[in-house]
């Protein structure tokens, strides 16, 4: 038996042996990742592999495939021509079988899939977007979700996912805000570690684990002007302390893969940033996994960043800087052999990358078990358990921003309810970007959720779309006003959309009915590549709301959106406001549960919501020196970081700290009693913040350093404790090394960054 086929040997030993048997063509083949949906044709219920794919396998092989099962307008895969859960598994088996049986060395293919909030394939469960997941402040529940996503993906043969997204949000005009957990690096770091643990499980080679790919490394959320992939202006100290912190936590958790960002930092594109990819990632952090580019990133070096003369130069720069695999594979596949023959690339550099690819494949168990069970895929994907988890996450991540005079919850005697707005019954609008096509019956919109909640009295529920997300068409105003006049309560469901053009036609604004049109209407105002200049509602949504408000009805607003909305009129005039982000396929049931008090809202903001776009940036952990106000308005957020209301009330008292003075290597325990002082059971998010009073490098006024979500019955008290030591007190000093400086610290515990109790802690000089 050849050593690389011996299961008893380590992944590293097997990879080294296999590398020694490979030709240059076979080595280069391992570094390319063509688009997977282009490798087969599906017709009359049968999958046929394309001749171009077969040729590529025979002429050196294919290391990886991207998005074999991805379905969306970009791929052209629809509900009609796409593969079901079982068919997808069978197709991947067919692809793998051809690669194993028709390549000289029988090397299996690494199948990579998008799974930001669920496997982006037909039949996959659509969970809420990461912005809502972060708003749950429930790391354990998110870890459970990652286990579910891994199980669904691996059941179809996907072995690596391009998630989690660990970018720190700095400008919410950025269209990819929805893909991020927060503006706070500590909170992102907690979710980052949970993602790795959940996705990768205890063993990468289990049938329910996939390799996690951390992205986008790094600074991607701090682009100039909030424009996607724009340049980043950031010093190394801030980069290490803020944007790299979540990545470091995920690497420490064992992440198997990482993806550099499109952007440049201080003039150096991340794709060729050796200081990031080699000095920090590999030497300082000890990362030994795979580095893969984002799609088209190497092309950008020669046509965009203009730091390379041509494609060959760009390919050599990338692989020398530490890139192991290219998503799309166009540049590596075209130029690496030529670079080797011209002497512009050393074979040792090529071997280094190939060895990392092969090692990951062995760790994933692909050589020993390259095939999956289609029957299992059918059972696991979209299971009732996973759907229930999607609903639970949505319930915990929806944030109650306002509740004037107990407008919520509604009760069964609330009379007629008019559900009005472009997002009231638009399924795709509540799913977010990176979502596969969905049959209408699978997605519970807010209208469907309310009707299901009032199943026996559904005639109490009236509906009108009123308008679209974008555009100035007011044709639906009259019908919406007529519905609202008949109602006792109006639920306005407005916001944004990250739905790409799924060809679903449009709706009749006068009736809300779907209608087929030669030109479907695209309401997309958020998502990748969709950045905005403002944070207000698009189109005539605000105007519709103002007209309906004149009727004097109870006025409830539900936002379905992917970035914070700044609308002062709504903040002032709405009786209650729910921020639901993009809550996934079960979002409508979750919203209805909260509206009627079946669920007590416990979501808390992980991004600050400004009063006006002109206040940006408003992230809470900015520097003390950034100023107090503008001429027109102060610089404070409308709704601060950590904010969120409940249907009950919570009291904080008896803040204690075990020591008021510690050495730099010691720790203290701070605790507080939290009591449910209301009449309804609920969950409170207890938040710990630290303020470094005097430091050699300027610091934020407050920084999140701990949190706990606590369930409390009415009248119940629980003591919540946090340890404060090196991890909570250190920062990146002027020498770019972590340091705990002696001096005074303020310790804050409370319900949001602006509402805390505080005590003091002194760190003594060593010795």
TrEMBL record:
Classification via Pfam families: Fn3-like, Glyco_hydro_3, Glyco_hydro_3_C
Domain Fibronectin type III-like: 684-753
Superkingdom classification of source: Bacteria
InterPro entries named in the record: Cellulose_Degrad_GH3, Fn3-like, GH, Glyco_hydro_3_C, Glyco_hydro_3_C_sf, Glyco_hydro_3_N, Glyco_hydro_3_N_sf, Ig-like_fold
Gene Ontology annotations of biological process type: glucan catabolic process
Sorted UniProt keywords: Hydrolase
A GO molecular function held by the record: beta-glucosidase activity
Similarity comment: family membership: Belongs to the glycosyl hydrolase 3 family.
Protein name: Beta-glucosidase
Native source species: Paenibacillus albilobatus
